[in-house]
């Protein structure tokens, strides 16, 4: 399917496509209530509570007042509906702002100012400098005579550098006035979300020249939400509008995230529900049998002989309602409450404030803090996330002399400054290459200072460094570069630019020096792309050594070279180049080949070393988190070597003897397949060795691997703890996240740019760094932090505590509900299985909502281990990752405890209050007090650290229980009138209560003590060490395999979850592993396919 | 003055800064906390202590329970004439058959006044849901003014007129009566103040008189004197305090005289109440009371049991601890 866009044609295509109105709203005013209710009721818990609440309206079966369920239910619904409404309103406001922005559009051949939402497909849109692009446009005119314009695409892909866009050749040279009247058709594909591709054609109608089809690419477009920079005006045709733009299509609706813990709680709730149904059925049958055999004889009950048709259902339904408290309605409210408090703790945390910018950390999504404690994979962006995204020229090696080695900063090296001052020819040539061999655009600001707009931060750094060394790139006027050096101004004419590609790994320019009319080739590029082409006879040894030295320091190296061209040679080559440039088939390859012809016999000038400084604490953070058992993947749009270098310098991968790097690449399916299999083989062999394996894959190979060899790649993903993916697109990042999620891993994606947004939204947890590339990632993320190093604290402190606390809170909530429910069930056995409630409505409601909910809320302050201990022993996170604190078996423990406590309370209270004391209200209050007392002690036992608030909540709650009951006992109208006063005056009441507490707590304390002392978990060991001041013990390795075996139910059954397959380590070395790879690469590197330079480079190096 | 003002202000500042500090500590999750730890000495001591407290306490409660003298007499089977032994229900339902019966109780131990008289029903489900719900507290308090009697089903109206007191509970009021004779003279039995004062004052109306009660075809339990207000119908008030267990005792009255050991008390009773149709038991109990209430050995034995268990526990833990500490590494070193 294609769409044909008729330029400036107001009759056709008006209503064919959607308008430019952007809408991110989920609801409208009218559908809000039904849709929101529908959404809320799609949750099982809510359906359940609604059903219970409805059943309670039937007075024949209800044991308690229906208000006790309706009240909380309506409250819960109102709260979440309000939240949704507020969010949607904010979305509406931001949409409205975008929609009402005014733009210039040609209507009836005149420019009109209209609102952005009224732009239609086919309209001609005019933009001025710094305007935001309102919809996807095809460029047809700019103010630049060359037909160029510059855009900032940060909002789209997160890259802040300026990109050049060019008008299609067919529109070249159309007069400003005529643009208003331009007519034509753009044939373009249906909207998609690929921001790198736009395969369309343009045909202009007469009188605008020929009716040749002119192909369009992404270079001819301006995409929505980009900004126009450095260009006075542009004019374009709207091709995609509204939500159908590239941006709109890629803006997936982020699905609400559910934590692993929520899923587990849901699962346990389901189990309890099943249990409840079983209890209801059993008791229902028992009740009906008892009714028919016994109750009919009990004349005082007056059972009618013939009941209504539903008679058989009445008793089961009564039990259903009695048991409905098994699933505590308070759990949702409590969880929401504590979760928002966890989020607040993150917001408040002073140790996570970025002191440079003063930006505190922020939790946008308040619901998923527990997941932070269960992270297994971290997928991180590189630039701006691990690094500061600030390139600084640090060292250089010119003509064999290294500068900056002592000072660490070449710009401050006196020798270099002297060399510059004395105009040493090597240095001057070196600086010239630095200043000219690039695609930087200098902009002279009004103050006279020169600003550089560079596509690559490296070039920016080089140009800046050159200007600091007095070689100032002042101006670029068309093809003439103006360079000021030591006071004199030189002009160079750029004849050709041999662009950078990832294959060539170098770029060159051919310039004509206007001073002496010489034609020179200036090249810069990766060492392996430059050094092999050194002219015969030049010693490259010093350069190789320099490169190696710099790389080990984690600096990004570039080699600079130059060659003087003879006029004839250039002319000859120039023709070939032009021809290659206009080929239609395999253009890139042809160009590369032609470039190769020129780029040889180079005179190596030197090596530059640029530092992209790692953020503070990145290596430590990564090391700590890796110790915590978290696997790191680096997904970067950057090139392979840089990625590897950064990975090395931040402990991501280990250097040679310890680590091994495996490369997957290839251009065709076969190549990728072969290399993938080889890597897999190596992985399997070496898993038993204590070696850090990592694989490296580039975007192209990844695309193929994901498409055709998904299974193999998944296996690889599971086997490898570390991976580096270079040159990946935003959607590939998201795909990788998806892949890991499918393997049932908890993933955290961290990034800082717009290109990370999709990955952030896709991952279980998205963390955005509010950094240099704007706030886009931070806004889309669940958490935003100022610096990468805060991740450590976010996961180890906040995530871990949140997990522990929620684990306790949720299980405790079930425990306390089960206790009271079991008592009711036991009571039904002595009340003729008729479904009588022992407790009255007030007590039941207060028990669930008040007596037991308040103390457990302060468990959000509980800390099992101090922050310092956790940081020192990050392995302890394993307990959270493996879900050791909340799983069916721990839950079974709590279930058993509730059963035991219910038995203790019930048996003791009915025996102590037997015969003449067996008054219903009294027995009920005795049992209830027993529960409350036990609860207080259970809370005390399970609390690891008592702050004043915990004491207040636990003991205050106990006091409050008595006060509330005294109040109720003082009201003559209440059923409990005088009961509590009466009980408190009886010695036997207190004796009974103490008995309940002792009988209920002693076994539990004994078991806990026994386990704590004789079979302690690692957490217990640390607690003991911490509190008794004992020696800090080495924890040993918490077996990382264990959790993999523990995890059940992988969607991919074929993938071996077991990371410890029994592979005989027959081969110490994979047949394809080249142990030493020339020089310069400090790690084991095995390369299967390497086009163009690499293999020849190896040969070359060995020759040297 | 100045000094005072200054110190006040600084106090305020101190208070505020302290409050701020507390809030800061809260937000940073750094509130000072104590972290108790289950060390062997403290756990062992705690268990020993529980044992040391619970065993004596158990002995004391047991003694209190043993001080109570209690005479229990099951009369429901004995009071049925031999002719009706095979069909007790017929006997109890037939109004024409005289229900009087005599029981001889022997006092085996001196009983000090007041001696409480209870009747006990076994296998009687006062806590059955149909039964529990079948009452109207409003009507008991306000009488006929209360019109909504739906909760009293199935005993709310009779012959189209409301019943006061309505509901199954009142309808099934216990109607056996007892008189006690020692030697020649009748023992003085106080039938007043057997119900809770709070019930008499606030739950049962002073101006509410029984109305249309037990007039129906189906007669349940006792009839009430319609000239006495509900607040003075203490038997009804006692009966309407629902028992939580299927075996329960309700107070009948008090004997205000001491009974000596070997006294013989003859009880003349009317065996009216039907427990035969559901195999219930009826018992008459004479009991003194102690500070702990009636005779109940459960608490004492439970205390002693818990006390002993915790001493055993502490002994086991002590042994384990000693054994572990003898090992070279001590108890808390791992790997």
TrEMBL record, chain A:
Residue segments, region Disordered: 1051-1074
Ranges for domain P-type ATPase A: 99-162
GO biological process, one term: phospholipid translocation
Cell compartment(s), UniProt: Endomembrane system; Membrane
Keywords: ATP-binding, Hydrolase, Magnesium, Membrane, Metal-binding, Nucleotide-binding, Translocase, Transmembrane, Transmembrane helix
Catalysed reactions, as listed in the record: ATP + H2O + phospholipidSide 1 = ADP + phosphate + phospholipidSide 2
Annotated Gene Ontology cellular component terms: plasma membrane
Binding site for Mg(2+): 381, 383, 752, 756
Residue ranges of every copy of the P-type ATPase N-terminal domain listed in the record: 5-70
Cofactor(s) listed: Mg(2+)
P-type ATPase C-terminal domain: residues covered: 778-1017
Topological relation to the membrane, as annotated: Multi-pass membrane protein
InterPro entries in alphabetical order: ATPase_P-typ_cyto_dom_N, ATPase_P-typ_P_site, ATPase_P-typ_TM_dom_sf, ATPase_P-typ_transduc_dom_A_sf, ATPase_P-type_domA, HAD-like_sf, HAD_sf, P-type_ATPase_IV
Sequence positions that bind ATP: 381-383, 459, 500, 524, 556, 636-638, 727, 733, 755-756
Record field: transmembrane: 44-61, 268-290, 814-832, 844-861, 891-911, 923-941, 948-968, 988-1010
Active site: 381 (4-aspartylphosphate intermediate)
Alphabetical list of SUPFAM superfamilies matching this protein: Calcium ATPase, transduction domain A, Calcium ATPase, transmembrane domain M, HAD-like, Metal cation-transporting ATPase, ATP-binding domain N
Molecular function terms from GO: ATP binding; ATP hydrolysis activity; ATPase-coupled intramembrane lipid transporter activity; magnesium ion binding
Family indicated by similarity: Belongs to the cation transport ATPase (P-type) (TC 3.A.3) family. Type IV subfamily.
Protein name: Phospholipid-transporting ATPase
UniProtKB/TrEMBL annotation, chain B:
Primary site of residence: membrane
Any single GO CC term annotated in Swiss-Prot or TrEMBL for this entry: Golgi apparatus
UniProt KW keywords: Membrane, Transmembrane, Transmembrane helix
TM region(s), chain numbering: 298-320
Domain of life the protein comes from: Eukaryota
Pfam families tied to this protein: CDC50 (PF03381)
Places the protein is found: Membrane
Record InterPro entries: CDC50/LEM3_fam
Family: Belongs to the CDC50/LEM3 family.
PANTHER family found in the cross-reference section: ALA-INTERACTING SUBUNIT 2-RELATED, CELL CYCLE CONTROL PROTEIN 50
Entry protein name: ALA-interacting subunit
Species whose genome carries this gene: Cephalotus follicularis
């Amino acid at each position: 399917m294609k769409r044909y866009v008729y330029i400036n044609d107001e009759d056709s295509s008006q209503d064919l496509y959607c308008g430019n109105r952007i809408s991110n709203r989920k609801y409208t005013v009218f559908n809000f209530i039904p849709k929101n209710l529908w959404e809320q009721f799609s949750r099982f818990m809510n359906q359940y509570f609604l059903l219970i609440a409805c059943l309670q309206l039937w007075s024949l079966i209800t044991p308690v007042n229906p208000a006790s369920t309706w009240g909380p239910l309506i409250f819960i619904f109102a709260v979440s509906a309000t939240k949704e409404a507020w969010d949607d309103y904010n979305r509406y406001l931001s949409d409205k702002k975008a929609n009402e922005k005014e733009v210039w559009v040609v209507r009836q051949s005149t420019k009109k100012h209209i609102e952005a939402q009224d732009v239609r497909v086919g309209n001609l849109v005019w933009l001025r400098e710094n305007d935001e692009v309102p919809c996807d446009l095809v460029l047809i005119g700019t103010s630049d005579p060359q037909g160029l314009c510059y855009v900032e695409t940060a909002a789209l892909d997160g890259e802040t550098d300026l990109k050049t866009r060019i008008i299609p050749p067919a529109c070249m040279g159309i007069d400003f006035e005529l643009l208003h009247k331009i007519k034509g058709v753009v044939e373009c594909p249906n909207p998609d979300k690929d921001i790198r591709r736009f395969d369309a054609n343009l045909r202009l109608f007469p009188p605008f020249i020929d009716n040749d089809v002119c192909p369009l690419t992404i270079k001819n477009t301006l995409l929505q939400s980009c900004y126009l920079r450095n260009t006075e005006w542009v004019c374009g045709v709207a091709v995609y509008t509204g939500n159908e733009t590239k941006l709109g299509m890629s803006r997936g609706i982020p699905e609400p995230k559910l934590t692993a813990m929520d899923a587990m709680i849901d699962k346990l709730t389901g189990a309890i529900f099943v249990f409840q149904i079983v209890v209801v059925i059993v008791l229902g049958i028992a009740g009906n049998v008892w009714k028919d055999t016994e109750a009919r004889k009990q004349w005082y009950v007056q059972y009618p002989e013939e009941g209504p048709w539903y008679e058989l259902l009445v008793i089961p339904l009564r039990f259903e309602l009695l048991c409905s408290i098994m699933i505590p309605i308070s759990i949702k409210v409590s969880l929401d409450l504590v979760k928002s408090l966890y989020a607040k703790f993150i917001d408040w945390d002073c140790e996570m404030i970025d002191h440079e910018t003063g930006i505190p950390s922020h939790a946008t999504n308040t619901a998923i803090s527990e997941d932070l404690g269960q992270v297994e994979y971290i997928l991180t962006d590189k630039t701006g996330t691990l690094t500061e995204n600030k390139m600084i020229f640090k060292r250089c090696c010119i003509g064999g002399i290294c500068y900056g080695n002592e000072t660490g900063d070449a710009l401050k090296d006196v020798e270099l400054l002297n060399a510059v001052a004395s105009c040493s020819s090597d240095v001057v040539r070196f600086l010239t290459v630095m200043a000219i061999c690039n695609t930087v655009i200098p902009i002279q600001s009004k103050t006279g200072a020169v600003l550089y707009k560079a596509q690559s931060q490296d070039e920016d750094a080089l140009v800046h460094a050159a200007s600091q060394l007095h070689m100032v790139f002042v101006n670029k006027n068309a093809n003439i570069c103006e360079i000021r050096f030591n006071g004199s101004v030189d002009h160079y004419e750029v004849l050709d630019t041999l662009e950078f590609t990832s294959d060539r790994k170098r770029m060159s320019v051919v310039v004509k020096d206007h001073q002496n009319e010489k034609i020179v080739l200036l090249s810069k590029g990766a060492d392996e792309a430059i050094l092999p082409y050194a002219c015969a006879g030049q010693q490259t040894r010093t350069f190789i050594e320099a490169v190696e030295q710099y790389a080990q320091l984690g600096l990004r190296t570039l080699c600079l070279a130059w060659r003087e061209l003879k006029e004839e040679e250039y002319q000859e080559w120039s023709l070939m180049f032009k021809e290659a440039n206009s080929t239609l088939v395999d253009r890139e390859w042809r160009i590369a080949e032609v470039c190769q012809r020129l780029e040889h016999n180079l005179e190596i000038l030197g090596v530059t070393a640029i530092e992209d400084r790692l953020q503070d604490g990145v290596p430590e953070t990564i090391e700590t988190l890796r110790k915590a058992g978290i696997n790191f993947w680096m997904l970067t749009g950057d090139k392979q070597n840089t990625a590897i270098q950064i990975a090395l310098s931040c402990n991501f991968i280990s250097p040679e003897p310890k680590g091994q790097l495996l490369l997957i690449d290839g251009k065709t399916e076969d190549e990728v397949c072969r290399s993938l299999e080889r890597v897999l083989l190596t992985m399997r062999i070496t898993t038993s060795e204590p070696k850090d394996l990592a694989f490296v894959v580039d975007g192209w190979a990844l695309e193929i691997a994901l498409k055709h060899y998904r299974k193999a790649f998944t296996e690889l993903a599971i086997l490898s703890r570390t991976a580096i993916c270079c040159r990946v697109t935003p959607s590939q990042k998201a795909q990788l996240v998806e892949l890991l999620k499918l393997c049932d891993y908890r993933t955290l994606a961290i990034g800082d740019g717009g290109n990370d947004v999709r990955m952030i939204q896709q991952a279980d947890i998205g963390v955005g760094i509010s950094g240099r590339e704007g706030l886009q990632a931070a806004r889309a993320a669940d958490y935003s932090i100022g610096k990468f190093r805060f991740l450590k604290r976010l996961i180890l402190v906040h995530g871990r505590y949140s997990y522990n606390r929620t684990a306790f809170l949720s299980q405790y909530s079930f425990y306390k509900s089960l206790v009271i429910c079991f008592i009711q069930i036991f009571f039904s056995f002595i009340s003729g299985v008729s479904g009588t409630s022992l407790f009255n409505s007030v007590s039941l409601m207060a028990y669930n909502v008040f007596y037991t909910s308040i103390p457990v809320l302060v468990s959000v302050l509980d800390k099992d281990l101090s922050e310092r201990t956790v940081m020192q022993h990050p392995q302890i996170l394993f307990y959270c990752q493996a879900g050791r604190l909340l799983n069916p078996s721990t839950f079974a423990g709590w279930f058993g405890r509730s059963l035991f406590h219910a038995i203790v309370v019930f048996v003791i209270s009915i025996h102590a209050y037997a015969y003449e004391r067996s008054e219903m209200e009294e027995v009920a209050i005795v049992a209830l007090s027993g529960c409350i007392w036990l609860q207080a002690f259970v809370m005390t036992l399970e609390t690891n650290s008592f702050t004043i608030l915990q004491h207040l909540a636990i003991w205050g709650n106990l006091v409050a229980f008595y006060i509330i009951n005294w109040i109720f006992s003082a009201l003559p109208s209440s059923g409990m009138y005088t009961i509590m006063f009466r009980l408190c005056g009886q010695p036997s009441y207190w004796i009974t209560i103490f008995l309940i507490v002792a009988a209920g707590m002693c076994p539990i304390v004994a078991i806990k003590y026994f386990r704590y002392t004789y079979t302690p978990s690692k957490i217990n060991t640390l607690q003991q060490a911490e509190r008794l001041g004992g020696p800090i013990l080495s924890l040993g390795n918490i077996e990382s395999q264990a959790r993999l075996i523990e995890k059940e139910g992988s969607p991919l059954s074929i993938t071996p979850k077991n990371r410890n397959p029994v592979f005989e380590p027959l081969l110490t070395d994979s047949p394809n592993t080249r142990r030493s790879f020339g020089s310069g690469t400090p790690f084991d590197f095995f390369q299967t396919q390497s086009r163009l330079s690499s293999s020849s480079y190896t040969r070359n190096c060995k020759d040297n | 003055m100045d000094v005072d003002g200054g110190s006040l202000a600084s106090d305020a500042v101190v208070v505020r800064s302290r409050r701020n500090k507390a809030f800061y500590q809260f937000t940073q999750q750094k509130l000072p906390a104590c972290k108790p730890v289950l060390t062997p000495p403290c756990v062992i001591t705690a268990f020993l202590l529980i044992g040391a407290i619970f065993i004596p306490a158990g002995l004391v409660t047991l003694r209190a329970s043993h001080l109570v003298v209690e005479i229990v007499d099951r009369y429901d089977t004995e009071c049925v004439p031999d002719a009706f032994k095979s069909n007790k229900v017929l006997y109890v339902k037939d109004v024409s058959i005289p229900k009087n019966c005599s029981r001889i109780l022997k006092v085996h131990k001196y009983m000090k006044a007041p001696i409480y008289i209870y009747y006990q029903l076994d296998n009687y489900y006062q806590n059955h849901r149909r039964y529990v719900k079948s009452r109207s507290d409003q009507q008991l308090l306000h009488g006929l003014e209360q019109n909504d009697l739906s909760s009293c089903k199935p005993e709310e109206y009779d012959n189209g007129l409301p019943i006061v007191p309505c509901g199954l509970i009142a309808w099934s009021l216990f109607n056996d009566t007892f008189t006690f004779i020692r030697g020649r003279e009748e023992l003085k039995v106080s039938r007043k103040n057997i119900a809770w004062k709070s019930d008499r004052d606030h739950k049962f109306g002073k101006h509410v008189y029984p109305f249309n009660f037990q007039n129906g075809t189906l007669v349940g339990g006792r009839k009430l004197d319609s000239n006495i207000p509900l607040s003075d119908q203490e038997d009804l008030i006692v009966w309407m305090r629902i028992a939580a267990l299927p075996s329960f005792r309700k107070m009948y009255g008090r004997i205000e005289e001491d009974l000596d050991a070997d006294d013989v008390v003859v009880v003349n009773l009317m065996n009216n109440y039907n427990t035969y149709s559901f195999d219930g038991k009826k018992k008459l109990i004479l009991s003194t009371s102690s500070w702990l209430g009636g005779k109940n050995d459960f608490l004492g034995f439970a205390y002693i049991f818990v006390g002993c268990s915790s001493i055993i526990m502490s002994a086991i833990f002590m042994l384990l601890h000693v054994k572990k500490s003898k090992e070279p590494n001590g108890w808390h070193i791992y790997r």
